[in-house]
Amino acid sequence: MSTQQWNDFMAFAATYAKTVDMAAEEDDYKLVLTERLAKTRELFLAKDAGWFEVLRKDISSTNLMNQYFMMRLVEIGRTQPDDLWEIINLLWQRDEPAVSHIDEFTERLRPFNPKQLSVGGIVGFASLLLMTCDPHQYPPYRAQAVKKFLKLVGWDDRGSNGTPSRRYALLLEALDEILRLAPDYALDVHDRLSAQGLLWTVMNVDPDDSWSAEEATRLRVWRGDKMDAAGTLLVRKFGPCPDVEAAGQLIIDAGMRGEPSPFWPQGCSWTEQNAAEMIKRIYENFDGGDDPFMAKIERQLEGASVGLYVLAAEFMALHMLPLVNVRGETKLARIETLLRWSGADLQVPEAIKNGLFAKGAFNGGTGFNVRMWRHFCWLARFVQVVRQRSAAELEDDLADPRKFDLLTEAVPDDPLGIKYSLEYLAWPSYFEPITSRTHRERIQKAFSSEIGGTTGTSDPDISWDLYRIRQAHEKAANGAVVDWYLEPYVSQWMKGGVTGQRAWLVRQNQGGIALLNAWLDGQFVSTRAQHLGSPKPGASFDDIQAAVNLGYQHIDYSERKARAQEYFRFLSQMKPDDYVVTAAEGELYLGMVSGEAEYAEDEASRLRRPVDWQPKGIGSEDLPAPLPRLLEEQGTVVDLTDALSVVAPWFASDLDLPEEKEDVAPQPQLAVVPVLREATPELARKLYVPRDDLQEIVRLLQTRQQIVFYGPPGTGKTFLAGKIARFLAGEEHGDHVKTVQFHPSYAYEDFFEGYRPAKTEGGNVGFVLEPGPLRRIAAEAAADGNRDKPYFLIIDEMNRGNLAKIFGELYFLLEYREQSINLQYNSEQTFVLPPNLFIIGTMNTSDRSIAMVDAAIRRRFAFVELHPQEGMISGMLERFLEGNGKPLLRAELLNALNAEIEDTSRDLMIGPSYFMKAHAESEQGLSDIWKYELLPLLEEQYFGRLNREKVHEKFGLPAILKKVQSTVGAVDMIVSDVAAAADLGNDTANIVDPVPADDDSIV
């Protein structure tokens, strides 16, 4: 015995004992299992018909049994339960177990499946059965861990590969040695079960932060761990979806090792011959018809061998296991259908069923589902790569995620989502369940500072960086699970929406050549680019413009600018999983980008991107907005992202339906103008406006999208605009309402966009194009993935600005919402007002007569008058006072004042909001309002008609009070008191009780 090797183990064990609760982590669940097995043993000895299913559930509830072994055991237990009962009875018929019986137990069990029922697995199964007698003396056995341990302590020459009984006896001897040495290391190890838990912990658990860096490194070197550059243990453990990952690894591991398939105990499906045959049948004999995938693959696999059907079932499982957007019933039905077509009696193992019905790891999205045939081809090529490697190399590939990454990189095919999915299933503790390369790149870039910068841009580099980034975040979060698609992470890396998908129109008639048939047959989209040179995909606009200027010197500079924009979109802005649309002969053809841009030796279509085209065209008549407008845009490559909400449903996968309809022609969608909520009685109560009047405003906004409130001062135009807008946007979306105020010096550059001075990178002052409030809120509304959410721009004092100067070419968009227009300062781009943006303007008729507003604005807005004596504002003050339990004197004063204003000055009447302020409740406050707000306003309005004295005599508070007295019978004393307050500034008398206004009042 090597004393030093044992000393090393015991020293590590002593350190672990200080930080790990051995009872909670190891002993307790084994004792619970023992109790369950003891009850199952009673059923077994009584020959209860359900004994095996109970036993299966008992063992499956722990991680003590190899899953491959468990699958084969289940097959025996369900097909030959009596034979299995006789074998198990060798160990369960006696109260006092004999380790020597494990030999006969192995001899009788192994012939059922010599390849899958290994000696080590059988010994492990036997150890669980022996636990029912005394778990403290007969603990569990795991062959791989025991062998590794015995080698580390120098006991591998004592029979670790001997007879089954000797292998288990050697473990018991090693545990007794741990018990013997434990006192020397102050270890509280009292029986073999606790010794076995200590052994397992030392062999498998990563040291925590209490270990020094030197201690942790020494342990890992001693164990021979696979470690990353930072010294973190690379353990192939489960990630966010254990059942899904376990099912995937059953298929991957068996296939890579050349072992029998989980679906087919009689043979291995991962052969070079099967892989080549799969590619031939699916890729070389491509079926571009309109049928669903399952109908196509049934024809393609007709007459195939059992092994090929099994391989197809495995590929289907690997494709569907991690998906959250497909029901478990659908997943299982597809796999069972493929197995049934084989003609053999094949079943889906329980462990894989558990994975199919478990919650998945990611939503594959449309692209993942419509590319199923491509995924099958990629997986077949992966099998071909696997079969070129030796058994030892494949074991290394499975044991090291970085080597597994290089293995998938060796597949000679475009990187697809299935590559990332397969990596995740094989090594979920290392690879992220993210199938979008764009998302992976964004996360890497957003958090690269936390790992000292990125390693590189290749897939292995990105995977390595994402692994390190996750390690850093989980450490900072004390081990909490990190989900990149939730806050606080998603907003840090995602720009422009959660999906980042875009849609593109690529015109197929380029240079007089019709390309549609070539695109559909070759599954690509292209642009001519015959003189472009070869700028790399992802190149900057400046680089592409330089290449265009060099290669297209024979065309006008304006055309060169348009070409540069076209190639920039195709090379750098277009991404995998983006939607592509092309028009031909009255139909639209739909596709999805599946790879990066590349150059081909073809003058008619030199610059290409692979595309998964739907074979069936769609009628282009009666298309919903904004598609008709966008399809009229000029250029070969047009950005259709504004119609993403229309285009995306046409590609929606129907995998979750009982009957597939993958290529069903889409139906026209409804217009994308959001439906506004109806005015409520509660809103009417708060605003002191009749509900029917409010609903009329909502109806006008719904149909016109642009309205103007106009009227005299004090009619609550701005207040009502804000309250109605916030009600319609929803209280939770207060940021969907923005306000801007026009004034005589306001211009287009202030309102929409214009150049502003700014410091450049070199410290010099230059000019940059800055967006104004309209462009900003339009961008927010257009970028909102949920187009049923309305946005509102309130333009206050609209008629005080020079409207023609402010709106410029935007006049066109106010009338033609479904169309776009080129911009004054950005001629390469077109702009459209998004359908979910509503505009509410206000105009004060006393500041500037709206008669001076030009007809262009009148035609583009619905004008709603707010007048003190008519419509929704009439009676507002009375409703306010009654609702708050106040006397009606203020309302009578307002009515008398407006009655005194001549009919020729209708636009000069006073609104109720002056009298709804809190300080209007006292005589002094009312006097101040009259003296400092109303009389100066009336003096200005009657300038040239009445002098100041006449205005005060006609409209002063004493004069109006006398009129009120004569019409409403007011008490003389109150009138005289108020009159005195108006003349003398006396603030001691009260017209009404000075109670603060209700929270809902207009202030």
Provide structural commentary.
The chain has 1003 residues and is of the alpha/beta class. Mean pLDDT is 83; it is low at 653-671 and 969-1003.
Features:
single chain, 1003 residues, alpha/beta, 8-stranded mixed sheet, 5-stranded parallel sheet, 19 strands, elongated
Mean pLDDT, to the nearest integer, reads 83
Percent range for β-strand residues = 5-15%
Q: Quickly give the structural class.
A: alpha/beta
Shape: elongated
Strands, total number: 19
Q: From the structure provided, what is the oligomeric state, counting identical versus distinct chains? A: single chain
Helix percentage range: 40-55%
Query: Mind summarizing the main beta sheet?
Result: 8 strands, mixed
End-to-end C-alpha gap: 91 Å
Given as residue ranges, the uncertain stretches (5+ residues, pLDDT < 50) are 653-671, 969-1003
Radius of gyration: 39 Å
Total of helices: 44
Give me a quick take on this structure.
With 1003 residues, the protein is α/β, with parallel strands linked by helices. Helix content is 48%, strand content 9%.
Compile the SSE list and pairings:
Layout: H1 3-19, H2 22-45, H3 51-60, H4 67-79, H5 81-92, H6 101-109, H7 119-131, H8 143-152, H9 164-181, H10 192-204, H11 213-223, H12 242-256, H13 272-284, H14 293-300, H15 306-320, H16 328-341, H17 350-357, H18 365-370, H19 372-386, H20 391-399, H21 401-409, H22 417-426, H23 437-446, H24 459-476, H25 490-493, E1 503-506, E2 509-510, E3 513-514, H26 516-522, E4 524-527, H27 541-551, H28 557-573, E5 579-584, E6 587-593, E7 598-599, E8 607-613, E9 618-619, H29 627-631, E10 637-639, H30 644-647, H31 681-687, H32 691-704, E11 706-711, H33 717-729, E12 737-741, H34 748-751, E13 753-759, E14 765-771, H35 773-783, E15 791-796, H36 803-807, H37 810-815, E16 821-822, E17 830-831, E18 837-844, H38 855-860, E19 862-865, H39 876-883, H40 889-900, H41 923-941, H42 948-955, H43 957-968, H44 972-984
Parallel strand pairs: 1-5, 11-18, 11-19, 12-15, 15-18
Antiparallel strand pairs: 1-10, 2-3, 4-8, 5-6, 6-8, 6-9, 7-8, 13-14, 16-17
Helix pairs in contact: 1-10, 2-3, 2-10, 3-4, 4-5, 5-6, 6-7, 7-9, 9-10, 12-17, 12-22, 13-15, 13-19, 15-16, 15-19, 20-21, 21-24, 23-24, 27-28, 40-43, 41-44, 42-43, 43-44
